[in-house]
Amino acid sequence: MSVISRPEVAHLARLARIDMTDDELDRMAGQLDAVLEAVKQVAAAVTDDVPATSHPLPLRNVTRPDVVRPGLTAEEALAAAPEVEDGRFRVPMILGEDA
Amino acid sequence: MPFEEAVERFDPVMGLEVHVELSTVTKMFSGAPTEFGAEPNTQVDPVSLGLPGALPVLNAKALESAIRIGLALNCTIATECRFARKNYFYPDMPKNFQTSQYDEPIAFDGWLDVEVPASEDGTGEAFTYRVQIERAHMEEDTGKSSHVGGATGRIHGAEYSLVDYNRAGIPLIEIVTRPLTGAGRRAPEVAKAYVATLRDLLRGLDVSDVRMEQGSMRCDVNLSLRDSPEAPLGTRSETKNVNSLRSVERAVRYEVGRQAALLSAGGRVVQETRHWHEDTGLTTSGREKSDAEDYRYFPEPDLVPIAPDPAWVEELRATLPEPPAARRRRLQAEWGFSDLELRDVVNAGALDLVEATVAAGCPAAAARKWWTGEIARRANAEGIELASSPVTPQQVAELQALVDAGTLNDRLARTALEGVLAGEGSPQQVVQARGLAVVSDEGALTAAVDAAIAANPGVADKIRAGKVQAAGALIGAVMKEMRGQADAARVRELVLERVAAG
Amino acid sequence: MSGAGDLTRWDAARIADALRAGVVSSVEVTQAHLDRIAAVDGDAGGGVHAFLHVAAEQALAAAAAVDADRARGAELGPLAGVPIGVKDVLTTRGMPTTCGSRILEGWVPPYDATVVRQLRAAGLVVVGKTNMDEFAMGSTTEHSAFGPTRNPWDLERIPGGSGGGSAAALAAFEVPLTVGSDTGGSIRQPAAVTGTVGVKPTYGGVSRYGLVAMASSLDQAGPCGRTVLDTALLHEVMAGHDPYDSTSLPGEVPALAAAAREGARGGLAGVRVGVVRELGGEGYQAGVRARFDEAVALLTEAGADVVEVSCPNLVHALPAYYLIMPSEASSNLAKYDGMRYGLRVVPGGDGVTAEQVMAATRAAGFGEEVKRRIILGTYALSAGYYDAYYGSAQKVRTLVQRDFAAAFGQVDVLVSPTAPTTAYRLGEKLDDPLAMYAGDVATIPANLAGIPGMSLPVGLAEEDGLPVGLQVLAPVREDARLYRVGAALEALLVQRWGGPLLERVPELAVTRTGAGA
Ligand SMILES: [Mg+2]
Ligand SMILES: [Zn+2]
């Protein structure tokens, strides 16, 4: 009984925006299944009363004053862009909108 | 289906999500500037471009504003909260995740009392609706894409897009209501009144310039219908970026009608985001909220938790301005306005303007007439919000002072306003430049009166015979002669005087 | 200059003294190392291949500037004029930064990482960018898109990873100092298998601003050198609070070089050392265990109280790490989409959408190991699995921290072998990710807990004559203890060996004559 199925891997690849060939999917599904088999034990290692740690150190309330810091010029910002058109990043057509 | 019929058949339930851009000078997580309308990609740094290696640091002013907004909305302020990453791919989002808050918002469980004015058509009373606030959380704005090619320059049919990241990372507060129930046929008005009240509240807090037309305040309208208030909630649609008070009301009306038609035809409402079209007053289907939409939220490891010192929160509470409803009641009393008069002022979005004009020395009644009358009319014609009108409260007060001093009559005052709006300077300057002042030279006036009498002996006889109302003809002739720049009352006195004397 | 070749054998402290004394110039030292790089580094096809980019002109210019400042009698840092290599995971203004990935090939950052800014400000001479596993994902440097780095002890073997380039450059005498980054052992394991020294500082002790993220809550940049003192001197340059990094520790930088000098002089009387039962024994190569046990015996001779301590939850550290790291990485690597910088691949056909270009770009731009971790992390974070995987892993992290807290209640430092094996052959574990991951078992716990760790060489394994590393761990903010204990042990070992271990590294074939820049 495998932990993760090939269709699941295909779905994840879509979520992660990575095109994969059928061969890649097969290979990836096999490897991920082995890895997940090895790591799934963590669920059994802990109990509900154990708090989760998301930060290694207990820092709190780190902020900066609302003061402008030197940034980048438009030239610097666009220097590495694959395509530029009148001061903006040119990108292929976008489907659907989100905000 | 017509709105009236729809609300007979169904019970509308609304949920409003309002995004507010804070007026900080730098972004939420970096020191890049936030100037509106700057050249594209000039308000950026490695953080707002999501460059490899860049790290976020929270803007202290944005945190303070978030807490003050939470307090003004009667929310509980979190004793500890975290940021979370909302993961999804979109070209105007530089990191392909939005740094937001998920299960630990900075503020939650609040409410806002909204005074819903009596309906225009007089079919509904004014009443107060308490909007329950679920949460207010901190997040960052995205960049702006303009779509090139295709019919409307809108996203559909576009060939490619151009992205400007100046807006990326601008601090946002997202304010989410609990489902608004029980509004019934008044739902559209409640929605509009809520957004208007929220706008006034935020303006009062001085945390945002809340310019809906500039997108610094944006509203998403969730709406669903159910058979009765007892029935479970129906499937909702989410109409995005409804960006004017009027549109909020129209969008709710439209969705109620659209969904009612679907349901009564035995169809089902699809859970989806819809786009509002200001021009047509319609919403159209956007992305369907497929189950594939999995944002994979997790605690933002590059930012540390926020635990506001309770003492500081209390200090901030002390900085809150008077709540809008209380303020309106106070001003109505001070100005002696009727409920109807105040409603007109509020609906015109003129409350602050009238207050400022009165503060500049103008009688309240006159200030109201100007802002809800002539200036509102012209703003409407221009299609701009009253607050964006080029004339200032100071200038309106000056204009009224000239009227009260008898320097201008109403007609001349409107001409002077025209000049001010046209950018010809202060009312005083316009009066000078256009030579608008009422003629107060008795000699010239008397001469004109005598001339009129001489030209119309018959009329003079009628007046002497006691037909005082006949004086109108002579007064008209004199005003015409003076090109309107005379005080009609004074002209009348002179006419009667000279006729009697002659 | 005659003897310039010898200069590359000098450690950083000696070079710095010579520069101060005016015996050599920074330009001479820099040129000597550039020549050495040109001679032995080779390329993807052969040689050490520790460098992805060598910036000869910029380096010589920087060196000349330091010499000029010195001539003017300007106030200079202790390492001013010393050449250094920087792992290609740190942004360098005007110098390519690829993270060993096709997706960033040719990207020249418009800004310096805070660490790089500190190096330049201290007068260190950045000669180039060192090779690494793509986005620091790997333990062999074979996952670099630009070809593997080879271990100077045996060019058929891995130099460790992900920072194999930074470690190999030291072992090959191409530079006396390098900067690395350590998310699960990427500084310490390469140090162990190349016979060099590497330190993962306390999390937050060194700024992460400009350190291209793999797993934000685990990543930490750190110093690499051939001696404990050199490493301490570099650590002091890199450490300190950075307002551009929210997770940067406030407060003073501890005196690390002083701790190293003290350790080298005095013994370890009264120092309590704990041997971690769960990190050793079973599954560790015999030669590794033998060298480790000898080193522990030396510590006892030097006056340390050595006891065995148990951290039972460390057995869950590896699985927890391989959930937390990919989860954070899947999100951190989402930005590479071909829209703003780096590679863009446009699939054929018309009406191509941004979504399709992103998917094609990421498919072509990322290597297999990176894709594997992105998919794994996407899975661990997705609705329905979050609690069982990511959530549980974060709880294991708490347990690991508690174990260390308890252990440091009994002892001052903990020790273990750095890696279970010596350098294995290139390609040996390429198709078995699990086997490769297992090599991180001893280094990962420190990253989960945020504590500092050092690896230093303790000899060569009997069976293969390859270097073995010992790991020292200390409590948060107690990095100085690593240097004191490390320097003491180093002194005893060098005495026993009759010279540094690296004197035994085989002479490398010259692949090109040192034409220099
Ligand atoms: Mg929303
Ligand atoms: Zn939002």
TrEMBL record, chain A:
E.C. no: 6.3.5.-
InterPro entries to which the protein is assigned, alphabetical: Asp/Glu-ADT_sf_sub_c, GatC
Root EC class: ligase
Organism: Kineococcus glutinatus
Subunit structure and binding partners: Heterotrimer of A, B and C subunits.
Assigned protein family: Belongs to the GatC family.
The protein, known as: Aspartyl/glutamyl-tRNA(Asn/Gln) amidotransferase subunit C
Domain of life per record: Bacteria
UniProt xrefs under Pfam families: GatC (PF02686)
Catalyzed chemical reaction(s): L-glutamyl-tRNA(Gln) + L-glutamine + ATP + H2O = L-glutaminyl-tRNA(Gln) + L-glutamate + ADP + phosphate + H(+); L-aspartyl-tRNA(Asn) + L-glutamine + ATP + H2O = L-asparaginyl-tRNA(Asn) + L-glutamate + ADP + phosphate + 2 H(+)
Record key words, sorted: ATP-binding, Ligase, Nucleotide-binding, Protein biosynthesis
NCBIfam families: gatC (TIGR00135)
Record function comment: Allows the formation of correctly charged Asn-tRNA(Asn) or Gln-tRNA(Gln) through the transamidation of misacylated Asp-tRNA(Asn) or Glu-tRNA(Gln) in organisms which lack either or both of asparaginyl-tRNA or glutaminyl-tRNA synthetases. The reaction takes place in the presence of glutamine and ATP through an activated phospho-Asp-tRNA(Asn) or phospho-Glu-tRNA(Gln).
From TrEMBL, chain C:
Reaction(s) catalysed (UniProt annotation): L-glutamyl-tRNA(Gln) + L-glutamine + ATP + H2O = L-glutaminyl-tRNA(Gln) + L-glutamate + ADP + phosphate + H(+)
Acetylation as UniProt keyword: no
InterPro entries, A to Z: Amidase (IPR000120), Amidase_CS (IPR020556), Amidase_dom (IPR023631), AS_sf (IPR036928), GatA (IPR004412)
EC number: 6.3.5.7
Active site per database record: 87, 162, 186
Stored Pfam families: Amidase
Annotated signal sequence range: none
NCBIfam families xrefs: gatA
PANTHER family cross-referenced by the UniProt entry: GLUTAMYL-TRNA(GLN) AMIDOTRANSFERASE SUBUNIT A, TRANSAMIDASE
Protein's name in the database: Glutamyl-tRNA(Gln) amidotransferase subunit A
Organism: Kineococcus glutinatus
